[in-house]
Structures are given as structure tokens and as C-alpha cells.
Automatic annotation (TrEMBL):
Keywords: Lyase, Pyridoxal phosphate
Organism listed in the record: Microlunatus antarcticus
Record bears the keyword Transmembrane helix: no
The protein's required cofactors: pyridoxal 5'-phosphate
Residues bearing the modification N6-(pyridoxal phosphate)lysine: K66
Broadest EC class assigned to this enzyme: lyase
Superkingdom assignment: Bacteria
InterPro entries: Ala_racemase/Decarboxylase_C, DCO2ase_PEP1, De-COase2_CS, De-COase2_N, Orn/DAP/Arg_de-COase, Orn_de-COase, PLP-binding_barrel
GO biological process: lysine biosynthetic process via diaminopimelate; polyamine biosynthetic process
Enzyme active site: C359
Name of the protein described by the UniProt record: Diaminopimelate decarboxylase
EC number from the UniProt entry: 4.1.1.20
Length: 408
């Protein structure tokens, strides 16, 4: 998706970027200081509506709140999605505060402590077990509390997904239980006082190739069908994971959601209906829901030229938006789309690099970007900032204050 497309999605008012229908300068005045993250309520709603209109009926939509756990965002999405996935006791508290029913909250991720699992069992949410250690902790918590734990098994599949920004399945992994070890783990649980609902398989994230996502979903269903007979009751929960990517760079092609939807429809009508008819089938999306709905706004505090190269120094940086600096998984650094939000419709006349206020050359938000003539006081806006922004960044570095977050 191009910068022009992103500008069109958010809109402009009198030459300024608009977020939530509000011109950037007014929004900045209301927030009171820069830097800040702003998330557009309308775009969030539209993204979920698009998913609902394209994905097949009978498929549940889960929000993976690790992508953006801001309470106001989670509260808004809780009224639009079917369920919420969390990755810590802190996220669990935010999810339950939305009023989402406990049985529609799932808890995945490695390294769950005994205390976290005790809270999860007490709350009645679905614990997605990553290991036999977690299974023993959950059973102990259930016995102590007099509560029957609700659990699913997260499986590390015996296949990998090519083209993912982050591979989370296949080969050795800290995520889930290896598929070949699942029979042993099920044997530990059968006969215990536990409600064993089904399986979760998440093979990779940030994938823009629909045919690869479709293949992973087919192989996931095949895997779960093969494991289903291990359970003492029919599979009632099938989490296919997500992995839907969003375009960050100029050469990226947006995901063809229609291809993914057609494949999911074929799976629901075919092998899932035939072999897993009682399963609540889930796709779990985070980045795809929130990523394109947010911006990071930071103010130019200095303009300087060093041996012919222009630098725009801003009051934000990688301590708030690590991914945009290229230090969160990029092998070859590329620029996230950005604009001078206060000059959104002006012609580009110069090439400049946007750098943050940290004492490291890694603090680079835009390298050799074509921009309008930019001055101290102008607002630089980074797009695709709705997911894995503030909470995925080293906010304590150098002791700068944390940025604000607003949902508008």
C-alpha cells in the first residue's frame, strides 16, 4: 500500500492529515504534547467489517491483543470480535474488564507462571497449554481452587510456513508442544478433572502471500484431524492461528483476503464439517486488525545539515516505535511510510533523514525520505503504527517520558 493510499484512508483536512476525522494540529493540541500514538476508531470498525464480509460464516474472529493492548482499543474491539486472546495475566485483566465472557478469552504463550495459571483457571478462561509443565500447573490450580480448568493444546506443527515475517512453528520452537509429543501430553490429561477442548496451531506471522497462508491452514486442519481421536470427547475448539500480514514498504503487495477466505470456506464445508463437526473454528488476528489503523506522531525539534545530508531530529524515536527503526526483525532496513502531517498535500522538494532523540545511530525513523521542506515544529507521522508499537519498544531507554495513546 502506498503512502498516498494511506493518506486517503485517513483523509486530510485543509492540507493536514486527519485522524478520526480530526485535523492533526487539533489532535496534537488535544493530546497536549508529542510524541503520541493515535488510533482511528472508524478504521478499526471498518477493518473488522471487511473481515466479516469476506470471511465465511461459521468462522469466529479472535483479536490477539498482544498486537495492541491499549485498554480503549481492546474495549472497542471487544464489541466487534467473537473472542480475545491474551498472553499474560495483565492482558487477561484488560480483556475481562471489557465484559467479554471468560469462555471467549484464551491465554497462549510460553512461560506461564503458576500464579498466572491459577488466575486463569479461577477466571474460567481457556488456557492454551504449551508444555507438560503448564499442564501440571493447571491441574494443581484446578484441584486447589475446586474449579475444572478449561484447556486446549497448542501444537508445534511438523511443518513450517515460508514467507512469514516471524516463524512460530516447525522445527524446534519454544512455542507449543511438538506434534509428535502431543499423544503423551494428552495421556497425562485424560482421566484428570480437566475440560480438554481442542487444539491451537500457529505456524507464523506477518505473511502477505495468501496461497502460503491457505496451505498452512489446510495442513493445520489435516494435523488436527489426525490428533482428534486422542481426545476423550469431540474437538470443540480449533484455533487455526492467523499470520495475515499488512504492507509496510513500497514494494509490498497487500494480502489477497479473498483467496484466504475461499480456502477457509472450503475447509469449513469439507474436512472440518466431516471430521470436526462440533469444533468452534477460530482465526486469531492482531496486526491485521489494528496495524493499519494507527499512526505515530512526533515533532521536529531540530533541523541540521551534516556534510551535505539533512537531518530532521524529532522528539520521538525507536524507544517508542522500534519496528520503524528497523530493529525489530528487519534483515535489510527499509522505511515505514511517513509524511509531514502538517504538510500532507505539499509537493516534495527535499531529501532528508528523520532521526530520533536517542544517543545511538540506530535511532533512525526514515532514511533519505523525499519530503516537503520541513521545519522545526512540523509534525512527522509514521503510518502502520497500530500494532507492535509502544508496547514492543524499549520505552525506558534514556529515561524519556512515555508517549500518550489516544483512540479517536
Amino acid at each position: 500500500m502506498s503512502t498516498a493510499d494511506l493518506l486517503a484512508d485517513f483523509g486530510t483536512i485543509k492540507g493536514e492529515l486527519a485522524v478520526g476525522g480530526m485535523p492533526l494540529s487539533l489532535l496534537a493540541a488535544r493530546v497536549g504534547s508529542t510524541p503520541f500514538f493515535a488510533y482511528d476508531r472508524r478504521l478499526l470498525t471498518e477493518r473488522v467489517a471487511t473481515l466479516r464480509s469476506v470471511l465465511p460464516d461459521g468462522l469466529d474472529l479472535t483479536y490477539a491483543m498482544k498486537a495492541n493492548p491499549m485498554p480503549a482499543v481492546v474495549q472497542h474491539l471487544a464489541g466487534l470480535v467473537d473472542s480475545i486472546d491474551v498472553a499474560s495475566a495483565g492482558e487477561m485483566a484488560v480483556a475481562l474488564d471489557t465484559g467479554m465472557p471468560a469462555e471467549r478469552v484464551s491465554f497462549a504463550g510460553p512461560g506461564k507462571t503458576a500464579a498466572e495459571l491459577r488466575r486463569a483457571v479461577a477466571a474460567g478462561i481457556v488456557v492454551e497449554l504449551e508444555s507438560s509443565t503448564e499442564a501440571r500447573r493447571v491441574l494443581a490450580a484446578g484441584n486447589e481452587l475446586g474449579v475444572r480448568p478449561r484447556v486446549a493444546l497448542r501444537v508445534n506443527p511438523d511443518f513450517a510456513v515460508k514467507g512469514s515475517g516471524m516463524r512460530m512453528g516447525g522445527g524446534p520452537q519454544q512455542f507449543g508442544t511438538d506434534a509428535e509429543q502431543v499423544p503423551g501430553l494428552v495421556a497425562e490429561l485424560v482421566g484428570a478433572d480437566v475440560d480438554l477442548l481442542g487444539f491451537h496451531v500457529f505456524a507464523g506471522s506477518q505473511n502477505l502471500r495468501a496461497e502460503i497462508i491457505a496451505e498452512a491452514q489446510r495442513r493445520t486442519v489435516d494435523l488436527v484431524v489426525g490428533l482428534a481421536d486422542l481426545l476423550p470427547t469431540p474437538v470443540r475448539y480449533l484455533n487455526l492461528g492467523g499470520g495475515f500480514g499488512i504492507p509496510y514498504f513500497a514494494a509490498d503487495t497487500p494480502l489477497d483476503l479473498g483467496v484466504v477466505a475461499d480456502n477457509l470456506a472450503a475447509l469449513l464445508d469439507g474436512p472440518i464439517a466431516a471430521y470436526l463437526p462440533e469444533a468452534r473454528t477460530v482465526v486469531e488476528l492482531g496486526r491485521y486488525i489494528v496495524g493499519e489503523c494507527g499512526v505515530y506522531v512526533t515533532e521536529v525539534v531540530d533541523r541540521k545539515v551534516s556534510r551535505g545530508k539533512t537531518y530532521l531530529v524529532v522528539d520521538g524515536g525507536m524507544h517508542h516505535q522500534l519496528a520503524a527503526s528497523g530493529n525489530l526483525g528487519q534483515v535489510i532496513r527499509r522505511n515505514y511510510p511517513l509524511v509531514v502531517g502538517s504538510r500532507a498535500e505539499e509537493e516534495t522538494v527535499e531529501t532528508a533523514s528523520v532521526v530520533g532523540c536517542l544517543c545511538t545511530p540506530l535511532d533512525l525513523l526514515g532514511n533519505d525520505v523525499e519530503l516537503p521542506r520541513t521545519e522545526v515544529g512540523d509534525l512527522v507521522v509514521l503510518f502502520q503504527a497500530g500494532a507492535y508499537g509502544l508496547t514492543a519498544s524499549p520505552t525506558a531507554f534514556l529515561g524519556h517520558p512515555a508517549p500518550a495513546e489516544v483512540l479517536v
